[in-house]
């Protein structure tokens, strides 16, 4: 089971990854 610190790190990476995907989709649109 992930510790509290690991869980917050995973959450941060997940949120950052989502932001990158949104930025990439926006940059690809005309």
Automatic annotation (TrEMBL):
Transmembrane segments: none annotated. GO terms for biological process: proteolysis. One of its GO terms (molecular function) is ATP-dependent peptidase activity. It comes from the Bacteria. InterPro entries: Peptidase_M41-like (IPR037219). This is Peptidase M41 domain-containing protein. It comes from Rhizobium jaguaris.
């Amino acid at each position: 089971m992930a510790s509290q610190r690991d869980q917050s790190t995973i959450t941060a990476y997940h949120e950052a990854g989502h932001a990158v995907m949104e930025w990439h989709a926006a940059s690809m649109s005309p």
